[in-house]
Design brief:
CATH superfamily: HIT-like
Bound molecules: adenosine monophosphate
Helix content: 10-25%
Number of helices: 2
Strand order of the largest sheet: 1-2-3-5-4
Number of strands: 5
Largest sheet: 5 strands, antiparallel
Order of helices and strands: HEEEHEE
Shape: globular
Radius of gyration: 14 Å
């Protein structure tokens, strides 16, 4: 049995985090190293390592994540201008191998770095 991911340990409250939202399917936390004025991570509870590991069984969950991301963006005042980023794989900059969406906002896209 592989050890639980960092995010699973946060979901289990074994590690601290600033939790902004939780429902039966996902949790949202503030990114510890924000790359934008608003930088939130939305994490499904099942430990899917990368988006590329998702299967048709996850279709409903993936849809839920998009709708929830939009709601969270609205709640944090960036509902009209936000970006969603998923890094898939080490070559794309993924560092935590538990699927997560970066919700970014609060600055103009032209001001944002290309990397994020
Ligand atoms: P990625 O590089 O796409 O895998 O994104 C991982 C993100 O997790 C990075 O933006 C990190 O800043 C963030 N992160 C790492 N550890 C924590 C933590 N304990 N609490 C909140 N965010 C974290």
């Amino acid at each position: 049995m592989p050890p639980p991911s960092l995010f699973t340990r946060i979901i289990r409250r074994e590690l601290p985090a600033d939790i902004l939202h939780e429902d039966d399917h996902c949790i949202a936390i503030r990114d510890i190293n924000p790359r934008a004025p608003v930088h939130i991570l939305l994490i499904p509870k099942p430990e899917i390592p990368r988006l590329a590991d998702a299967t048709p069984d996850h279709q409903k969950l993936l849809g839920h994540l998009l709708l929830t991301a939009s709601q969270i963006a609205q709640q944090h005042g960036i509902g009209d201008a936000f970006r969603l980023i998923i890094n898939n794989g080490e070559g794309a900059g993924q560092t935590v191998f538990h699927l997560h969406l970066h919700i970014l906002g609060g600055q103009k896209t032209s001001e944002a770095s290309l990397g994020f």
